[in-house]
Amino acid sequence: MTLYAFISFLMRYMDQKGFFYGGNMKAKLTLRIIAEITIMSALAFTLDYVQGLITGGLFPNGGSIGIAMLPILIVSYRRGFIAGMVTGLLVSVLQMIPGNLSLIPVESLPLIVCQVMLDYVIAYPLIGVAGAFARKYKDAKNNKLKVTFLIAGTLVGGLLKLLVHHLAGAIFWREYLPTDFLGGPDVYSILYNSGYMIPNIIINGALLILIALKAPMLLKTEENK
Q: How many angstroms separate the CA atoms of 125 and 73, rounded?
């Protein structure tokens, strides 16, 4: 109940400030929106956990390949970028509850907190930035334009997440990365994180396009039909 109350309060406040994409229904937040975000964040967390079990072994310093981004992208295009970022933030919170995090092996609490902020608190919410293209997607007159805005949003959200993971690797994991690698730790970090983020961007972007073409109602809200 505490988590639900927090989500409800946060989203009602942001809705009153006009952050949510909602057509002509200004400042109207229903339980459906809260339910959508809660359910989709739980789904994204579950998918992230499963893909970690399946492909996480390929990335010893964190990262996995799967479809955990998809629920966040769906909310982002249904409700806008703030709703998408809130969904991503909830995924981050759920990830931190069991304490199953990839942390730098140091005893400095400030460094660990900063690394957690980049790798977890900030990374997943940035996927929701894809929702900045929600209005353009919904206003597009043909499928070609719609697909263009889906690709653009997925690329922006995914690449922002990649950038944050790269910064965390280059800054906080630097002394644990290979120094003899061509280009040094900075290049190693971007290549390592691209190894799972680029496939994630492609897979989730393709699935999002498939949903838009075959089941477009999943990206629409009642007021946009």
A: 10
Rounded distance, CA 21 to CA 101, Å? 33
d(CA 44, CA 60) in angstroms, rounded, equals 21
Report how far residue 179's alpha carbon sits from residue 171's, in angstroms, rounded to the nearest whole number. Answer: 14
The model's pTM? 0.84
Q: Which domain CATH number covers 23?
A: 1.10.1760.20
Give the pLDDT band of residue 26 (cuts 50, 70, 90).
very low
How many CB atoms sit inside 10 A of residue 23's CB?
13
Which structure tokens are listed for 190? 């971007």
- Here the tokens at position 159 are 């690449």
| Total domains in the fold of the chain | 1
HSE of 92, CA atoms in CB hemisphere, 13 A: 20
